[in-house]
Design goal:
CATH class of the domain at 185-294: Mainly Alpha
Strand content: under 5%
Helix content: 40-55%
Order of helices and strands: HHHHHHHHHHH
CATH superfamily of the domain at 185-294: Cytochrome c-like domain
Bound molecules: heme C
Number of strands: 0
Structural class: mainly alpha
Length: 297
């Protein structure tokens, strides 16, 4: 029978330990190299899948929200809105023209979020690029805006070399209406269907005022401020500034029918968006509430 000395036992144990370590080491190394080679590609795959989904979501949103002005293939609609599938929109020339210094992604994102309150060429395109971000009175979330940007960027390849901003200036279609003393300029020459419109609600109806306040807090306060003074968080970057709805002198220049009109149609060339797509009842309620802020009947 072979007996091992203590020394031999220790030596044997040491060999076993070393073997175990190296086996574990090889396994760990395998795992590690698996990690190194496989994780990035898995990550890339995930990223691609994510981008693919974003583009799909963007395409769905585009067909629902943008086609009526920019056409289904991004070719624009004559005298409504410009083409988007254009080289200069993606290679930075258009952004530079508008003094934008950030990336193209950020430029598109910014355009979608806040719209273009000031039309580049009102003589060429009658529509106004609306603000889409909820923060600016729109209906879309940040991730929906991102999806739209991903979708638009897909047009980068194969975008045509077009300059849609050249054109022959045409005279404004509506002649300047006659000034009316004591009445805001936007109200001059108010016509159908707005002229003479009357509120279906009493201006002191508390229930309506409370409902209107909710709409206001949700949709208007970002620009007009929590108390209506025109000092909301978004106001800092706006020019002209949102109106001070608590100022009785200003509100007196907005007769009820015209007040309804500006909420419904927005104010051209400013950040004030049109709200008519939300319906008359929405407009009347928020009107009744905001009028209560100034106390002007
Ligand atoms: C009511 C019509 C209308 C709708 C709806 C609309 N747009 Fe626009 N859009 C315009 C107009 C008009 C312009 C030109 C703005 C200007 O004068 O600079 C514009 C400009 C743009 C621009 C900047 C183009 C440039 O060269 O500066 C982008 C990008 C854009 N729109 C994307 C969209 C997307 C995406 C949607 C849908 C979520 C959309 N638009 C919906 C009317 C519209
Ligand atoms: C994205 C910012 C923004 C949002 C959101 C907004 N407004 Fe305005 N609003 C403005 C600006 C800017 C003006 C100033 C327009 C001007 O100088 O004529 C304005 C003006 C007005 C005026 C006065 C019209 C005038 O000739 O100045 C009324 C009334 C008004 N807004 C009501 C509302 C109501 C009600 C809401 C919510 C349903 C709302 N606004 C949401 C920016 C905004």
């Amino acid at each position: 029978m072979i007996t091992m000395s203590t020394r031999q036992k220790l030596f044997f144990a040491l060999i076993c330990a070393l073997l175990t370590c190296s086996v574990l080491g090889v396994i760990a190394w395998g795992e590690f190299s698996d990690d190194a080679s496989e994780n990035p590609s898995a990550r890339q795959q995930r990223a691609r899948a994510y981008a693919g989904r974003a583009i799909e979501t963007g395409a769905e949103l585009y067909s629902r929200l943008c086609v009526r002005c920019h056409n289904a293939r991004g070719e624009g609609i004559a005298s409504v809105a410009p083409a988007l599938r254009r080289k200069d929109l993606f290679d930075g020339r258009r952004a530079r023209e508008l003094q934008w210094t950030g990336s193209i992604e950020a430029f598109l994102q910014n355009t979608l979020r806040a719209g273009r309150p000031i039309p580049s060429r009102a003589d060429l395109y009658s529509a106004r690029m609306p603000a889409w971000d909820r923060e600016f009175g729109g209906t879309l979330s940040a991730s929906q805006i991102e999806a739209l940007v991903a979708f638009l960027l897909n047009w980068r390849e194969g975008a045509a070399e077009l300059n849609v901003w050249v054109g022959v200036p045409v005279p404004a279609r509506t002649p300047t209406p006659a000034p009316q003393a004591g009445i805001a300029r936007v109200c001059w020459g108010l016509s159908a269907p707005y002229a003479g419109k009357q509120s279906p609600y009493q201006l002191n109806d508390r229930t309506i005022i409370a409902q209107g306040k909710q709409i206001y807090d949700d949709r208007c306060a970002a620009c007009h401020g929590a108390s209506g003074k025109g000092d909301g968080p978004a106001a800092a970057v706006l020019n002209p500034k949102p109106a001070n709805l608590t100022d009785p002198n200003f509100m007196r220049t907005l007769p009820i029918d015209c007040h309804f009109f500006v909420i419904a149609e927005g104010v051209r060339g400013t950040a004030m968006p049109p709200w008519k797509s939300l319906g008359e009842d929405f407009i009347w309620k928020v009107l009744v509430y905001t009028r209560s802020l100034s106390g002007v009947p």
